[in-house]
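subagent[fold] <- orchestrator: predict structure for attached chain, return tokens only, no commentary.
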Amino acid sequence: MRDCALVAAVTTAAPWRLLEGEPNFSLALFSPQIGHSFKTGGLELKLIEATASPQPGNQGGWESFTLVFRGPRTHPLPESTHWFSHAELGGFALFIAPIPAPDPRFQHYAAVFNVPAHQQA
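subagent[fold] -> orchestrator:
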């Protein structure tokens, strides 16, 4: 797994909102969506990876994980917060950053989460 921790980060302690209430971001929420499409910036990005990120010295109060999305290289998105929509998860703001993709036809994007344990699903 590539080290995305320095590339992008989002902490859901911030006032992010889903369309219908408070965010409940967790690895368990996103893992079943691997292979599914998310819409943002007029593009469809496919979630291709959802991986737990170990935290040295973690006292158990946080869940850390990384999502990797794949999109077309022809229409790259800038490192920024983007509005995502998904058929099951609804809409939410997510900070993503471009990362290298092994296939030159695609651009990959990473989002790194550090979620308080009390917000886990």
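orchestrator: received. Logging for downstream: The chain is about 5% helix and 45% strand. Residues 1-15+32-79 form one domain.
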